[in-house]
Amino acid sequence: MALQEQDEALSLPGNHVGAHDTLRYGIPAFKTEALPAHPAQVIQSTFCKHQDQTRRSVLEKVYGSALPLKMDIEEQILSRFQRPPGLLPSSMLGLESLTGALDEFGFGDFLNDPQQSESFVPVDMHHGMEIRLGLSKGPVARSFF
Questions:
Q1: Distance between terminal CA atoms of the chain?
Q2: What pLDDT, in 10s, does the model give residues 81-108?
Q3: C-beta of residue 98 within 8 angstroms of C-beta of residue 54
Q4: Which of 85, 78, 77, 84 is nearest to 122 (CA)?
Q5: Is the predicted pLDDT of residue 45 greater than 60, yes or no?
Q6: Which residues 6+ apart lie within 8 Å of 63 measured at CB?
Q7: How far apart are CA 99 and CA 11, in angstroms?
Q8: Who's near 131: CB < 8 A, 6+ residues apart?
Q9: Long-range interactions of 53-60: CB distance < 8 A, separation 24+
Q10: Which terminal CB of the chain, N or C, has fewer other CB atoms within 10 Å?
């Protein structure tokens, strides 16, 4: 499983042929992507997934298998509603209330606003809509990979 995640981390964004678009995404840097992650970083990245699995198994044991399936369907429905790409990010308030993310107030909620960083690259609205409609491939902005 760790090898599969490492292979996904090494892949570069590209077009439908698989070639890397240097003008759009910049020069690829394999050194930063090839280094193994710190063990604490791996634990932090898998914590939410493990917590959701345990919550789902507890709900299934207590209320039966229908409730987690219903919650999955509601989560899929609420994850579809987003604003078009642009300056205002989508808040996803319904999804946050369903998953319980509104109850957690972390470090990134008040000190890690990506729009205030020095390396912020504004999203190309037209390219973002092309990706959402399936007309183009690749990340919406360089800051996402």
A1: 21
A2: 888 777 777 788 888 888 888 888 877 7
A3: no
A4: 85
A5: yes
A6: none
A7: 30
A8: 137, 138, 139, 140
A9: none
A10: N
